Amino acid sequence: MQKLTFVKVFKFLKNVYCLQSIRHNSLLQPAGVTSASCAGETKANKGLVLGMYTIDDDPGEVELMGRFTPAAERYNLLVGGKLFDVMKSSGPPLKKGKVRVFFDLEPEFSCVAVVGIGKECAGYDEFEERDEGKENIRRAAAIGCQSLQELKVLKICVEGFGNAESAAEGAALGVWLYQELRHKSKQLRLPLLDLHDDCDWAGWQIGLQKAAAQNLARQLMETPANLMTPTSFAQNAVEILCKSGVNVEVKVQGWAETQKMGAFLSVSKGSCEAPIFLELSYYGASYDERPIVLVGSGVTFDSGGLCLKDKIDMKYMRGDMAGAACVVATARALAALQLPINVRGLIPLCENMPGCAAFKPGDIVTAMNGKSILVENTDCEGRLLLADAIYYSQNFWPKFIVDVGTLTRDVKLGLGGAATGVFTNSDDLWDKIHMAGIHTGDRMWRLPLWNYFTKQVTTSTSVDIMNVGRGKGGGAAKAAAFLHEFVPCGEWIHLDTFGVMKENGVDHPYLRRGMSGRPTRTLIEFISALVCHQCP
Ligand code: MG
């Protein structure tokens, strides 16, 4: 297959943000998203999503109808002005985020959804720290596609709305839902998606890849814990990644024992499911280039152990392997985009259960780096998995380390579902991941990695470190301070994703209610941008 080089220039305010040069296979299709050309087909049950800029916020102009996007205007001319006529006669001016569907305007498309996209001039919002223009596009594409999906439209063509990548993200994220275990007759069919009347095919493909990665993370997180044990997670990872060009090594309990991963193994003792440690490797650059190491916490079910959670909290703990899911999904996307970069993924997998051999509050375990850990709370187990995996990463001489895990309720108390909590020892990496979140709409927010918190977890006369620490509050910062004690050297980012684990279907309309798969797209964007900076 012919390989093409696509160069995308992202402009951010007046500054050039990133020159992205990505070599990828032009025929590569993201898993879970099928694309087909819209041109020249005249089949029924084929829909089109178009946009209309709205003027919701201007009270002086509420009676005006708004303005079609350029693609919608061209379509309106094609149908002899019929789209304008039906829009005008269909009710009051279209509001942002609202959709109207029209039928049989011409032979090619059986239905056309027109979505209110918001203000034409929307862009970076310094208070929201988000590109509102891109977010509007994701929202519009998702709402338009969902409205046609409910009509059982089999193929949906979506205009680019001025940014085909964001349109693809919104469309592919918006139509996805977890329904594998429903009877086939009750499943909502996933439509084929394609770009309409836009030449940014590369942007569209990149957007589909990023969305497909987040959808993969959502699927892994949604799968119930009885079907997503450490073993079945490993089987899924092998099946998904090996055919994508990512090497997967599956390490068993005996291997972890030889590595003296006492912190990780202590968590697994209360379950009859054996722990597993996955090592992923994607080498898109020369072998002598240092890899980025991604570490994902993989607690496939977290009951809290002997410090048992209540039943409401436990209900969602199938998603406590979100970090692991995010790393698998990111690795697949990086390989699919054929980014010239080396990445290692480290994924400790186990259940946290209160079985008869379970670790107990008051136990002291020894981590791989020889530090003794006092287990004060068996429900603070994610940091124990990550501690050994982070220390193990030194074997690969990493360029830097990123760990991801749903570690603390405290981060949700502070940030809700608005942003991932970020702790890092590198201002440079913070700038880059912060910027990535601005572009993806899946935001990052930096929290302190102060010595104040380190003292709270290390000041003990009997052990080196405690898994909860002294004092009230600051749980997310204390977890980060705990992990910092196991970082071998160099730059490191810790992402606490507990707050962004679930979606309510309202805050991000392109994500239905359920497990979110966040912050997969931000991680991909962050690593992609690093490649950009390396380009000559
Ligand atoms: Mg826990």
Question: How is this structure best summarized?
Answer:
With 536 residues, this protein is an alpha/beta fold. It has helices spanning 70-78, 82-89, 132-150, 164-175, 201-222, 230-242, 253-258, 262-268, 311-314, 322-336, 382-392, 409-415, 427-440, 451-458, 475-484, 520-534, and strands at 3-12, 15-25, 46-53, 67-68, 99-103, 111-118, 124-125, 130-131, 155-159, 192-196, 247-251, 276-283, 292-296, 298-302, 342-352, 364-366, 372-374, 400-405, 419-424, 443-446, 465-466, 492-496, 502-503, 514-515. Strands 11, 12, 13, 14, 15, 18, 19, 20 and 22 form a nine-stranded mixed beta sheet that branches. Strands 3, 4, 5, 6, 9 and 10 form a six-stranded mixed beta sheet that branches.
Q: Please give the radius of gyration in angstroms.
A: 24 Å
Binned, the helix content reads 25-40%
Number of domains: 2
* The CATH topology of the largest domain: Aminopeptidase
Count of separate DSSP helical elements: 16
Mean pLDDT: 90
Question: Describe it for me?
Answer:
It is a single chain. This protein has 536 residues and is α/β, with parallel strands linked by helices. The chain has two domains: 2-6 and 31-198, Leucine Aminopeptidase, subunit E, domain 1 (3-Layer(aba) Sandwich), CATH 3.40.220.10; 223-534, Aminopeptidase. It has helices at residues 70-78, 82-89, 132-150, 164-175, 201-222, 230-242, 253-258, 262-268, 311-314, 322-336, 382-392, 409-415, 427-440, 451-458, 475-484, 520-534; strands at 3-12, 15-25, 46-53, 67-68, 99-103, 111-118, 124-125, 130-131, 155-159, 192-196, 247-251, 276-283, 292-296, 298-302, 342-352, 364-366, 372-374, 400-405, 419-424, 443-446, 465-466, 492-496, 502-503, 514-515. The strands form six sheets. Strands 11, 12, 13, 14, 15, 18, 19, 20 and 22 form a nine-stranded mixed beta sheet that branches. Helix 4 links the parallel strand 9 (155-159) and strand 10. The site of magnesium ion has 5 residues, from loops.
